[in-house]
Amino acid sequence: MTHDKRLPERKLGTQGLRTGAIGLGTMGMTLAYGAADEDGGVATIRRAYDLGVTLFDTAELYGLGTGSNEQLLGRAVRDFRDDVSIATKFGFDLSDPSKAGVALNSRPEHIREVTENSLRHLGTDHIDVLYQHRVDPDVPIEDVAGTVGELIAEGKVRYFGLSEAGPDTIRRAHAVQPVSVLQTEYSLFERAVESDVLPVVRELGIGFVPYSPLGRGFLTGAVKPAAEYPEDDMRSWDDRWQPGNYEKNLTAVRQLTALANAKGIAVTQLALAWLLAQGEDIVPIPGTRSPQRVAENTAAARVSLTSEDLTEIRRILPFGAAGSRYPESMMPSW
Fold first, then answer.
1. Which of 72, 173, 222, 226 could form a Cys-Cys staple with 145, CB 3.0–4.6 A?
2. For 35-49, b where at least 16 C-beta lie within 10 A, e where not — what string?
């Protein structure tokens, strides 16, 4: 297996984590976008590595407590584990399947239990980035940071990450255990982090990993209205695909596509290049099940956007997409 190091590297935070400029999110290989395709997932992960990707993102949640997503990733990277960074997450209570993705649990003993399970599922002796998946209002963030700090001291974890945390939480956690990375949704479609969150992580020297950088698939071009997706596909209920919002968002994507076509690139590459242009401390993790799509996504790291391009993109989508990104019950609490 070859490894193409031409993908530019970026520094995530001030504690030494360096990865390729574009990573790979594995959630969709087992969750939220229809039936799982594990063999296809393994092939996609290995192709990503061939292309220079070194940051691979999974989570306990993505296997709904079975470990399936982490096991898939562990199997895929087995031959080059020491060349890549694996990120996984704790923070949900998955004991009741009906509350998966909603019920939270970041108690210290649960963090340790999930971490041990993740190490076993991944087939590794350390996790490169351990994120708190969502802030748990019932557990002081200082206790969470302290527990992850202990795991770092024990050699089981290298770097501490937060996901969907707000400025106050970030500061409080960082005061106990330095936070290396924050992962939060950020894309042409979702801009909420720009006003309050990005300034704080940059002040503190924390790297930023945008998830859903392609608008959960809306920017891939292969979209249809919510009613045309099966029930096990999140796009069937996502607000951005609903009547009214869908048409507005489709119009914006068509304008972005025209701009991309004029530059001889795909609209997905335009969207990823826009994110990379927002700062050298940003490494997006687009998710895909397709080896061909991975090649397209990673090529975005070599796309240069002019100031005129950036101005036109902001004109087309000045505030992000129409529609909320989560139902109220799933909205992260900062």
1. 173
2. ebbeeebbbbbbbbb
Q: Model-level pTM?
A: 0.91
Is the CB of residue 177 less than 8 Å from the CB of residue 146?
yes
Give the whole-angstrom CA distance, residue 120 versus residue 242.
40
Provide the residue type at 84 as one letter: V
Q: How many other β-carbons are positioned within 10 Å of the β-carbon of residue 162?
A: 29
Q: Are 271 and 188 in contact (CB under 8 A)?
A: yes
193: tokens are: 């982090």
The span from the CA of 72 to the CA of 305, in Å, is: 35
* Structure-token match 């993505």, residue found: 62
CA of residue 231 relative to chain centroid, distance: 23
Query: What are the residue numbers of the active site?
Result: 62
| Full DSSP string of 169-228 | HHHHHHHHS-EEEEEEE-SSS--THHHHHHHHHHHHT-EEEEESTTGGGGGGS----GGG
CA angle 235, 133, 151 (to 5 degrees): 155
Q: What is the pLDDT of residues 171-205, one digit of tens each?
A: 999 999 999 999 999 999 899 999 999 999 999 99
Give residue for tokens 């106990």: 176
Looking at this protein, which amino acid is placed at residue 318?
P
Partnered with residue 18 across adjacent β-strands are 11
326 confidence band (pLDDT: 50, 70, 90) = low
The full DSSP string for 9-42 is EEEETTTTEEEESS-EE-GGGTSSBSS--HHHHH
Whole-number average pLDDT of the chain: 92
